[in-house]
């Protein structure tokens, strides 16, 4: 399903291609003249219309880092609280052991949860980046086809045109 942003970006890129296709050629060159400001404006608009998934992916990466930092702080606070508690209960060895075990369990749970969240965030970002890669690949193919169409083609000499033309001049089709 193509989103509005993708459609807008595609329309902008097609307009860029049209500008290049209709541009006046530079004499004795395969290059053409285009209005730089107009072309740059279209490219800027296309960049501004990039899919929302990119912004979401960046946001997810930021959120993941913030979550991991928060989980580490909480884990550190829990471990520190457990140490303080254990020190106060040094006289009772069994209580100290139980507090240390409980702190380890909490830290392991926090580490497991952080690992799970990190994996989920990475999977989501990977999925979004793969989708964006497909969009970029299509765009690249469109640009490459446009550039191929712009390549100068030299028609064959008149003596190489066969007799099947019924005496008429051969029609040169640059796009065909």
Briefly characterize the structure:
The protein is an all-alpha fold. Helix content is 72%, strand content 2%.
Folded structure, characterized:
With 176 residues, this protein is mainly alpha-helical. The protein has 2 domains: 1-50, no CATH class; 53-134. The chain is built from 4 helices and 2 strands; from the N terminus they run αββααα. It has helices at residues 4-22, 36-48, 52-88, 93-150; strands spanning 24-25, 32-33. A two-stranded antiparallel sheet has the order 1-2. The longest helix is centred in the C-terminal third of the chain and has 58 residues, at 93-150. It is rod-shaped and about 110 Å long. The chain starts with a helix and ends in a 26-residue tail after the last helix.
Protein topology:
Elements: H1 4-22, E1 24-25, E2 32-33, H2 36-48, H3 52-88, H4 93-150
Antiparallel strand pairs: 1-2
Structural descriptors:
176 residues; mainly alpha
Instruction: Count the DSSP helices.
Output: 4
% residues in beta strands: under 5%
What is the arithmetic mean of pLDDT? 81
The domain tally reads 2
What is the string of helix and strand elements?
A: HEEHHH
Give the helix proportion (percent range): over 70%
Structural class: mainly alpha
Q: Please count the beta strands (DSSP E, at least 2 residues each).
A: 2
**Shape, principal axes of CA atoms:** rod-shaped
The side-by-side strand order for the widest beta sheet comes to 1-2
Any idea what the radius of gyration is? 32 Å
Euclidean distance between termini CA atoms: 31 Å
């Amino acid at each position: 399903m193509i989103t509005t942003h993708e459609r807008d970006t595609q329309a902008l890129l097609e307009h860029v291609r049209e500008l290049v296709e209709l541009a006046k050629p530079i004499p004795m060159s395969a290059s053409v003249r285009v209005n730089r400001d107009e072309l740059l404006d279209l490219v800027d608009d296309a960049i501004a219309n990039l899919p929302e998934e990119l912004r979401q992916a960046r946001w997810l990466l930021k959120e993941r880092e913030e979550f991991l930092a928060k989980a580490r702080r909480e884990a550190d606070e829990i471990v520190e609280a457990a140490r303080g508690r254990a020190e106060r209960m040094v006289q009772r060895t069994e209580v100290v052991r139980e507090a240390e075990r409980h702190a380890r369990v909490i830290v392991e749970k926090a580490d497991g949860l952080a690992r799970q969240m990190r994996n989920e965030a990475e999977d989501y970002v990977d999925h979004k980046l793969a989708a964006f890669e497909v969009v970029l690949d299509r765009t690249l193919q469109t640009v490459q086809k446009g550039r191929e169409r712009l390549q100068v083609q030299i028609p064959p000499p008149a003596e190489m045109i066969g007799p099947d033309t019924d005496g008429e001049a051969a029609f040169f089709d640059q796009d065909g």
